[in-house]
């Protein structure tokens, strides 16, 4: 990670902007490289840390990233310009639940409102190419998904955790998908269509 990206990360952490852990983002970069992904749609930009990290590590990937919070969107845009990556990272200020995608991508990264994982998946999975991959972050939700009994008195949190678990079960129930649950960072899921190997050069 270069100095500028480290500064962006430290600023985000000091302002309590949620960003991916280094372990998670490194795993994602490895997965994108393995699958030879050249295009990525990210749901949940925050201030651009994950998309900047990915664009720095994979020099031929193009990224579209969606953020609904206007302040974070503006900050992300500034960071992308400062890091000279505006030709490869397109940040869009929109609610992803209503945003219309108009092109196919090699990879989809879902890292936004955790209770909406299924809505994001249903909306954008049709735009993932047959050999594409989907990565979903924060499935452990800071350990809460394993300890739901402890959330008896925290109704909103319990509901969110239940939605994360329901989404996982839904993906596991789909006979057309293969799922890898990864215990890195805050818990990730790597989803592919069954019967398709990695290779986008076709
Ligand atoms: C965990 S942060 C993203 C972190 C970023 N991927 C990173 O690692 O640098 C989640 C972001 O998703 C945004 N978000 C939540 N729901 C959204 C929606 N429906 N549409 C677009 N952005 C959304 C939030 O405003 C927040 O900034």
Offer a quick outline of the entry.
Helix content is 37%, strand content 21%.
Structure, explained:
This protein is α/β, with parallel strands linked by helices and 202 residues long. It has helices at 3-14, 22-34, 49-57, 70-82, 117-124, 155-173; strands spanning 39-43, 62-67, 89-93, 105-110, 128-136, 177-182, 188-193. A 7-stranded mixed β-sheet has the order 3-2-1-4-5-7-6, sandwiched between helices. The longest helix is centred in the C-terminal third of the chain and has 19 residues, at 155-173. S-adenosylmethionine binds at residues 18-20, 44, 46, 49-50, 66-69, 72, 95-97, 111-113.
* Range of strand content: 15-25%
Q: CATH-wise, what's the superfamily?
A: Vaccinia Virus protein VP39
Q: Which small-molecule species are bound to the chains here?
A: S-adenosylmethionine
Distance separating the two termini = 32 Å
Question: Can you tell me the residue ranges where pLDDT is under 50 for at least 5 consecutive residues?
Answer: none
The number of helices is: 6
Helix content: 25-40%
General shape: globular
């Amino acid at each position: 990670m270069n100095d500028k990206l480290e500064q962006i990360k430290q600023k985000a952490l000091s302002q309590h902007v949620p960003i991916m852990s280094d372990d998670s983002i490194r795993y994602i970069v490895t997965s994108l490289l393995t699958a030879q992904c050249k295009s990525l749609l990210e749901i949940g930009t925050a201030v651009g840390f994950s998309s900047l990290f990915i664009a720095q590590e994979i020099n031929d990937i193009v990224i579209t990233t969606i953020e609904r919070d206007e302040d974070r969107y503006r900050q992300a845009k500034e960071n992308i310009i400062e890091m000279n990556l505006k030709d490869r990272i397109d940040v869009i200020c929109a609610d992803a639940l209503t945003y219309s995608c108009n092109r196919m991508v090699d990879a989809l990264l879902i890292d936004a409102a955790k209770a909406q994982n299924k809505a994001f998946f249903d909306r954008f999975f049709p735009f993932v190419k047959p050999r594409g991959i989907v990565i979903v972050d924060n499935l452990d939700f800071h350990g809460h998904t394993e300890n739901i009994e402890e959330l008896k008195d925290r109704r909103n949190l319990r509901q969110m955790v239940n939605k994360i678990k329901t989404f996982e079960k839904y993906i596991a129930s789909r006979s057309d998908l293969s799922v890898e649950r990864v215990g890195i960072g805050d818990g990730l899921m790597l989803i592919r269509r069954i019967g398709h190997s990695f290779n986008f050069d076709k």
